[in-house]
Structures are given as structure tokens and as C-alpha cells.
Amino acid sequence: MLAPATLLAQPKITFDKIVHDFGKVKEADGAAVHDFTFKNTGTAPLIIQNVTTTCGCTTPEWTKQPIPPGSEGFIKVSYDVRGRPGAIDKTITVSSNTKPATTHLRITGEVSPVDRQPAEAFRYTAGALRMDNLHVSFSRVYSYEKPTLVATAYNPGTNPVKISFVHLPSYIKVDVSPSTIRKDEKASIKITYDAAGKNEWGFVSDLISMIQNDDTSKEYKLTITANIQEDFSKWTNNQLQNAPSALLEKSVIEGEKIKKGEKAEYKLKMTNNGKSKLLIRKAESTSQQVKVTAPKEIAPGASSELLISYDTTGQTGLQSKTISIITNDPKNPSITVRLKVEVIE
Known about the structure:
The protein is mainly beta. Helices cover 5% and strands 55% of the residues. It contains four helices and 28 strands.
């Protein structure tokens, strides 16, 4: 029988800081790099299982071997600033064998653009116009915010082009100035995003339609994305003391081998160890082959199961799928689960 001290032994991850501000960096420098250092202040070996980011522009590296109590490790974050002038605001999710199982880091800053010729600055074609970007990313947005970002259009042709937007959802507003662009002129496309109006959580995406010269037969798409989160800094001490607490039985599902074309189902137990109702706001996978069915809420002290269904059609070999769970637990609002299986012929 194990001694009581052994039964209670568990790792604990303590970072020197969880937010790093790069300040002003130059786009010409290529990459902004920072090492987040941490210490295992627990009583059992610490294992970093995975590190994920909100976009492909941020590349993480981390300590792969188990970290004994009292020892240190690192999460190295490299942000590619090339072609990304403007604000930096990215979230890094660290999954480990700690409780809670996820820790959120953040990088901020501002990228100063390099001077470019129009052909370099406006790389994307949209009808008669050139655009500096066809994807407007709001990164993290709190549920009550209405942030504004700007895309720029350039007219390389000889004829004036009038811009307008159609079929806009109620939570996205667009202001174009000037609305008609003459030869070699630019227009600012100000996009305002109402997170409360979207009424969703986590990573969300929309397509908005631009038309030119009132020609509705051709629509040019801009992608709008956001990561909508709750601002727990506004919670009172009483709310925090009586908050829900989400606990998953495991953060990695190691599935057995599956034959190609078959479907497999997995159950994942979630417990609310807190003092108020746990809301599961979103539970989904980045893979279309994986479907997640989750309860809407879990009462204090109660448990429930998430049902994960994996369709292996068109899949083969070792597979690793990511599942994201968004809750109202202020200490663990975003939970990442990995499904690892081997699909055989």
C-alpha cells in the first residue's frame, strides 16, 4: 500500500509570468521570440503534454522530458511578424498533468510595418481591387467588447471602383472610407465586431461579402475570426469564491486501433467540484471527423459525461485530434483534450 504522502503527491506548474509584452517590434526583423520559464513547485514529476496556439503564426517549443519537483522548464514562443503589421495579441494553451490541466499564456505587442510598394503591400486580388488582407482576425475578444479593425483596399486600375458590403450579420458593421476609390488610391475598411451580438464562445468565424460598383452578381469574401472569452477579472470576490470548478478525468484519450471506415465512441467524465453551476458553453473538435456531445450544465458536486464520436472514413495511420471545451470556470475556462488513435486498413 502506498503511503499517504505518495497518494497526495502531484505536480504544480508555476510560471515567472503568464503575459509577455514584446513592445514595438519591426516587421523586417522576421520573428519575435520569448521563453516563458516555469518551475515545478509540486511534489511529483511535471509533464508538459501539449502546447497549442491560436494561429499558425505562433510556433511553440517546450521541455519534453518529465520535470522533477523543484526543477525548471520552458515554453519557447516564436511569433512570425512578417506580413503581420499591427497589434500582437495571441494566446498559448499549455496542457500538462497538473490540476487544472491547462494554463493560458499570452503574448502582446505591436509590429511596425516595413515600407512596401503597392504590389507588395496589397498581395490579394478582389475583383478590380488589391487588398492587404482577406482575413481580419480579432484574436481575443471579451464577450462585452465591440472592437474595430481595419483592412485596406487599393485600386491599381484606371477606373473608379465603388465598394459596398451586403448580407452582413447584425453583429458585424463595416464602414468604408472613401466608398469610391480612384486610380492609385486606397480605402479603409473599418470592421466593428459586436461579441455580445454574436452570442457564441471560443473561436468563431464568419464570411462577409463585398461587391464592387453595385454589381451583385459577383461577391468577394472576407473572413472574420474572433476568440470570444469571458472577462473573469470583472468577477467579484464572492463570485470567485463560489465559482464552478471543471475537472476532467483525463486530458488525453488513448484509443485502441480502429479499422478504416469504422466509427468509435469514447466517454469522458467531467465533474463540477465548485460551488455553483458549471456551464459548458462549447465543446467541439477542429476535425470534421470528430463530433462532441456535451451537457449544457453540471450542478455543483455532480458529474456528467461527454460523448466523443470519431468517424475514420478517409483516415489512416496514427491520428491526433484536438477537442476544445469552453466553460465558465474562471480558473479553467478553456480545456484541451487530445484523442490519439491508430487507424488501420
